[in-house]
Automatic annotation (TrEMBL):
EC class of the enzyme, as a word: ligase
Magnesium in keyword set: yes
MF-aspect GO terms: 5-formyltetrahydrofolate cyclo-ligase activity
Keywords: ATP-binding, Ligase, Magnesium, Metal-binding, Nucleotide-binding
Cofactor: Mg(2+)
Higher taxonomy: Bacteria, Bacillati, Actinomycetota, Actinomycetes, Micrococcales
UniProt family annotation: Belongs to the 5-formyltetrahydrofolate cyclo-ligase family.
Zinc is among the record's keywords: no
Entry EC no(s): 6.3.3.2
Listed name of the protein: 5-formyltetrahydrofolate cyclo-ligase
C-alpha cells in the first residue's frame, strides 16, 4: 500500500471514529432500532436462513437487537471471533449468549469455536465498516479480517456492511486487497452498490 493511501485511510478513520464517539445515546438507540428494521427486511427479501453478523461495540451502529431477533426467529447466526493469524473463527449465536472481550477489545461470543470455513455455508454476510462508498468499496478499521474472509470464499454470498447514514461517502481510499461489498445498511436505508458476488 502506498504511503498516500495509508495516510488517507488513517485520517478518514480518525475522523469517523471521533464522530462516532460524540454521538448521543439517544441517537445511538434510534440507529440501532433502524438497523434492526433494515436488516430484518433484508433477511426477508433474500430469504436468508443462515447469516453471519458482528456484535457491535458501543460506538458502532447497533446489531445486537437484530442478532437476538434473528436467533428468536430460528435463523442460524454465526458470530466472528478474531484469531492471531488474521483469520476469523465463528460461533453460533444462542439466546442469552455470553459475550467477552476478544482481541482488540471487540465483543465476542463465548461458545464452541467453528473454524474459518464455517462461514462458507451462510446466505448473507453482515460486516462492520468505517465507511462505504457509492461503488461498494469498504473502508474497514485496518486489521483486514473481513477483507481476508470475503477474498477467501469460494462462493461468496451477498455482503452488506453496516454504517451510519453519514458514512456512505462518494469515495473512500482503497488498495488492491480491499474488497467491495454488495450493499450497505444504514439506520434509514439499504442500498445495493455493486453487482452480486460469484
Amino acid at each position: 500500500m502506498s504511503d498516500a493511501i495509508a495516510d488517507a485511510k488513517r485520517a478518514l478513520r480518525a475522523e469517523l471514529r471521533e464522530r462516532r464517539q460524540i454521538m448521543s445515546e439517544s441517537a445511538r438507540d434510534a440507529a440501532a432500532r433502524g438497523i434492526a428494521q433494515q436488516l430484518d427486511a433484508l433477511v426477508d427479501r433474500l430469504g436468508a436462513r443462515s447469516l453471519s453478523c458482528f456484535l457491535s461495540t458501543t460506538t458502532e451502529p447497533g446489531t445486537r437487537a437484530f442478532v437476538d431477533g434473528a436467533v428468536a426467529r430460528g435463523i442460524r447466526v454465526l458470530l466472528p471471533i478474531t484469531r492471531t493469524d488474521g483469520l476469523l473463527d465463528w460461533s453460533v449465536a444462542t439466546p442469552g449468549i455470553d459475550i467477552a472481550e476478544g482481541m482488540f477489545g471487540l465483543p465476542e461470543p463465548v461458545g464452541e469455536l467453528l473454524g474459518p470455513i464455517a462461514v462458507n455455508d451462510v446466505d448473507l454476510l453482515v460486516i462492520p465498516a468505517a465507511a462505504i462508498d457509492r461503488t461498494g468499496m469498504r473502508l474497514g478499521w485496518g486489521r483486514g479480517f473481513f477483507d481476508k474472509t470475503i477474498g477467501s470464499m469460494e462462493r461468496c454470498p451477498p455482503v452488506y456492511a453496516v454504517v451510519y447514514d453519514s458514512e456512505v461517502l462518494d469515495e473512500v481510499p482503497s488498495d488492491v486487497h480491499d474488497q467491495r461489498v454488495t450493499g450497505v445498511v444504514t439506520p434509514t436505508q439499504t442500498l445495493v452498490l455493486s453487482p452480486a458476488r460469484r
